């Protein structure tokens, strides 16, 4: 078996999508994963057939009756032979089954365990069913997601589950890294709630000075979708330095909106007259040419322009195929399917060729023979430390998707040095977004092109465990920090490159900015609703790319622990965007499965999974599973049409059922319905209809759980941001540190490099550092 995780043993007791998605990623990269399901197969195999065709690939299946003592003993025996165990039961269920933390530690103190719940193990929502829709309703996504009517907008992309799967994987990999040092097995806990926050983090920041997220269309930043003359859509983003002015030149508007004079142009306000031009005249200009002409014009001007494609059209695009991001898997239930391939490329330890999801019980009987007991080192004890304490990361990236990965590493205890140009990261113009991507790091600002700083550059490379960046192809080499240059100085370095499109291929030199890569893979149509123009997704490839990049980094570190060897790792943003739509597949005859589920009004996916207006607000219902639908049927009783007596709600036409439920729910207030349905065991909540940024970040409960943090600031008085989204036993997670000011640690880092204070002062006088 190949892959950076070859030899790792994983027992997967999870259900739903987040847990199986997480362990699918582990299996794709070499782990031996067994999915534990009840005799006869888990009911989710039918209800989530499309998801499971992807998320169960490369795994084995073992059927076990967990309601019997013999079954629990069988699983505990497997866990004792394993490295990792994952579960996604509601809080308390594992303990009732006899598979709680105490039972696992008694049998397998070396194991890293992971729990993925809906809303976490404590807090006011711990017992709310962990349904994707309910998470988005309560966390505030439905108030964030743009729509064609006022909020709430049902979320069309499952990024809470995706985020939880990435967080769970990162936590487990970090715990394994520390276990390889001290021999201690740890428990990792996260949730779909945390998974949603991992994406919303980019948008959420709060200060006492009132500084908040920028208002689209108010600054010198164009980031929107345009309809072209051929009725196709194009996403444009001018976040690159100078791109706003270059777009104005292409559109012949420079006399009315002159070019800017700062690297942080996206934070500079427009005049009211200029804002009107951007809002009204520019869309009209794009209607004058077909999309392919605009792509050519803007590409030649080095302005980010990306076509917004419909479902699975990206599977046929040359760059996607060049990256190897589409694989065919012969699923035993759905037949031959084109699926999204694993998103990360390891030069020295390539991922596993995908095998189809197992049939019920397939491959499980050989586990006892295959998983022979292994000698485990005795725990060394000592004080609790952060899992990545001692790991040094050199972050050469800019904007969001690249730097977000090292930020997540800093959250886990790594020492991250952010090397910036003298002008600073262009994203500094948008404080909320910048702070989200850069929390916990140290900043050095230097002119790395200067020959006088060659020794500093060499020191930073030679002392890094990881180098991470997202520069455009060729830029790192010109600065002397390309992979070959770095490996010559530091052969053991884990070099993680996160380009937009890839390091090679027909589109590798194109610009990429979120959320346009989501548009390229069809995500903008997924959140817009059927038949609607594309809409920017709240959960996009910027945070998604950072999460995948963090996992790439951790896998590279684990592989180096086992082999002593560094390697080149590539994690393109387009690959991460595709991984975000991995729940969508295509049959050999071209039929697409799992796409375009959201209705045109952006109410939901079906009558049993959607938003409903009530007498005084809104209700979010998530009763699509047979058990929940039966509970709803029992709760409503004779209030449903008489002709449906005895019928299962899942068998009734969705439009007819939606009309009937809509009439019922409109007759009473939201609080009454939530109380009645919750008491009857029906998953239903009142969705948030206003942005939750300040409410969430100032909530003492969220600060207690460390999901939110508050720090003092010289200008903004108090600054608040999202903090830890993982909990881990026997680990001291670092305190929240606000993103550094430009060059805040330059002197400190240069002293560590062996420079004298006099040399540092001289460099400052020469304007080589700041």
UniProtKB/TrEMBL annotation:
Molecular function as annotated in GO: catalytic activity
Gene3D superfamilies assigned to the protein according to its UniProt record, in alphabetical order: Crotonobetainyl-coa:carnitine coa-transferase, domain 1, formyl-coa transferase, domain 3
Entry-linked InterPro entries: CoA-transferase_III (IPR050509), CoA-Trfase_fam_III (IPR003673), CoA-Trfase_III_dom3_sf (IPR044855), CoA-Trfase_III_dom_1_sf (IPR023606)
Pfam families xrefs: CoA_transf_3
PANTHER family for the chain: ALPHA-METHYLACYL-COA RACEMASE (PTHR48228:SF5), SUCCINYL-COA--D-CITRAMALATE COA-TRANSFERASE (PTHR48228)
Protein name, entry field: Unannotated protein
Native source species: freshwater metagenome
